[in-house]
Amino acid sequence: xNSPERMRKWLVSSGxxxxxxxxxxxxxxxxxxxxxxPAEKLRILLAFPDTYEVGMSHLGLxxxxxxxxxxxxxxxxxxxxxxxxMIGEMRDxxxxxxxxxxxxxxxxxxxxxxxxxYELCYSNVLAVLDLADxxxxxxxxxxxxIVLGGGPCSTNPEPMADYFDAFVIGDGxxxxxxxxxxxxxxxxxLKSGRRSELLQLLSQVQGVYVPSVGKKATVKAVIxxxxxxxxxxxxLVPYMRTVHDRAVFEVMRGCNRGCxxxxxxxxxxxxxxxxxxxxxxxxxxxxxxxxYEEISFLSLSTMDHSSIDLLTEEILPLLQPQxxxxxxxxxxxxxxxxxxxxxxxxxxxxxxxxxxxAGSQRLRNVINKNVSEDDLMSTVKAARNxxxxxxxxxxxxxxxxxxxxxxxxxxxxxxxxxxxxxxEVSVSAAIFIPKAHTPFQFAQQIGEVEAARRLxxxxxxxxxxxxxxxxxxxSSTIEGVLSRGNREVGKxxxxxxxxxxxxxxxxxxxxxxxxxxxxxxxxxxxxDYMRGYDTHEELPWEHISTGISKEFLIxxxxxxxxxxxxxxxxxxGCTGCAVCQTLNVSNVLRKV
Length: 592
Description:
By secondary structure, the protein is of the alpha/beta class.
């Protein structure tokens, strides 16, 4: 019998923590963890399908952990996928996946919620279920926990539809407590094996997609105002260094700049900002409750917050006494961005990152990146004059209509930035992958051979103070198939897992040969998923609505091919994406 006490004794007495790497991944007991008496409560296990240090850096899981635990009748705990050495130890000892708070086996929970943050973690999701002793296929479950998926990848749930009972589409805070309440009120259906009846009830909740009910049209759930949900002033503090070892504050959600390749910029619309005072209040409390030496203002475009100048003025005095650093995801390509970055650097310099995305103005127009080379050069010169020695530039290759001369422009532009006087310029080149619910969902993805050829053009950048890093073309191919896949691709995911695919998002663990063998076994034609789609073709994810109309996505794609740009509705008026009308919401801008 697997009990919490058996899990605890095994951890403490078996010596396993001396045999595995990074044992603090598995002990729990973090500062500010939530401990409740689980009796008479709906028990929810929030699982991140990657290692502890990756999952503990993910804000979405932390938000749900807080929001669910403020409800008296719910108890949410956490689990992360153990590393391969620990998985081996657990299998040898017949120890299942268990929670960090109470060491309760995952199968004893009522709901198992799994974050779908990136496609290359899909085999990890199956590893989570396998380690939990939960049948991988949804149709084979009876009284096991409801397996719930959420996160950006759930906007195309079809590749993983056979493995989940339900998906949350949209803002998790808006719908997950409602879903949990339906489960709690009808828990007898689950416990008596009447699972399908419970799933029928869940399918009636807005923002919940239940694959077993059929391809039912599902509109995302949305929060009208982030300020309706208090920021977490008592965040979990781990005992080990995590990937992003800092306190994170979501200062706004959504971005309307309209980059045509950017899935997040489409699926998280509209823009909803938090007020300066509530952010300042939360930062002060977190500094009192934790020992973090760095905080981050997280959003898709933090520099676009309507009151970012006042916000930094209010926050910096709180950080100066202990020299706590403030980081922003990236720097806006204009003088204002450098001005704000310079204020922040007055305490402690963090990295300075710019994302031109493309080397030529023609291609920046195609992708709707509304910045010019003059904007970039004046910005980096201002950065150099303010003391920065290093800068990082993000580009993409394989964008629609890209030509070799566009790649040559990346080389020229990077060298021009270096000539400003930086000691080091880092250039990162990602391979474009068409994503669902974006204007470029119709575009073709370049294959591995062509990607390698194009990267070869950029390799002349290496040396003389310029460092080039790039994505692996083979992993980009797999991600591309998974991102636009259907349920047939889902069969290949299971096959790949059975062949040993796990931790594929870790470069040293990824094995393309496994995936191609799985694709062959399930008769998946990779080229068919990499091709361009006709704009009037029915796509596998069209039953999922993020609020944006297909007509808008088609119009934006056609404008891209004409090299025309579209403005930001925050400053230039409605662009017709239909989010506000479909979801009955609007931008929430807090200009002081």
